[in-house]
Amino acid sequence: MPAPERIPAGSVTPVELLTRGELTVRGQIREASNAVLYCTIAYEEQTAACVYKPVAGERPLWDFPDGTLARREVAAYEVSEALGWGLVPPTVLRDGPYGEGMVQLWIEAGDGADAAAPEADDAAAGGTDGGAAPGTDDAPAPGAGDGVGGADGDGGAGAELLALVEGDEPGDGWKAIGYAQVEEGRTALLVHADDARLRRLAVLDAVINNADRKGGHLLPGRDGRLFGIDHGVTFNVADKLRTLLWGWAGEKLPDEAVTALGALREALAAGAPLAGRLGELLTPAEVDAVRGRVAALLASGRHPAPSGEWPAIPWPPV
């Protein structure tokens, strides 16, 4: 089916379109662990593609309250906006054909990727299968290993942001994550690009306590921006940070991150709009935990390191 038209500049905002538009289901992601539906949405003659994750389709998790993943996805968007980095596609909580759920704007794949809308039964959720990602401007992908990334690990969304390389050094423009077994008796070094966009995502993940930052959750857009998707397992009170973006662990936070975190701390103050909005989506303890993580990052001035109390890297990593 043809891709829906983009939202023209100066028309309704993406959030308004997602909130008020008529939602039509076009297909389902069969590989997703929860119900993920590819949809189109229309409002005041504007149309776009989007992803709809109904609460009714969420599978229970032992460490997160039932029926809360959609709200956590929306909370991740709100925090991303407060940081000023726009790392999460516009996301709202609303009623849909299968009840309340998260609705997120579809982001078209970056240049060099297949940007066509998916077929009905193979629809991609917010770009879960992704496309080719623009890596660090001056850093070619390491040539000694096999690229990883995307939902299938075969060069999807993170193909130029994540890689497996031979040897013990990541190479110029890359950061080491750790060793991964690629076949019986053989390991390779898993690396990610030393990319400012990824570094911002690493800061966001530390704030929202993301328990599942995989390569397939990295979505490069056509305009060179990088988005993170699939934020259902976030905001737990317990430390559950699990990510592929450990390359900066222990390093000093960039000045822009310190500035953004300082603004976020003010936005989280009691009575501030963001604090009120998060209070609608999360428990009071979870909102307090966000404040605590922001305060800890500002106090240390450094990227966090794995705690050792929780697996540091998601599996499978892509």
Automatic annotation (TrEMBL):
Annotated region (Disordered), positions in chain: 114-152
Residue stretches of biased makeup (Low complexity): 114-126, 134-143
UniProt protein name: SCO1664 family protein
UniProt organism field: Streptomyces typhae
Higher taxonomy: Bacteria, Bacillati, Actinomycetota, Actinomycetes, Kitasatosporales
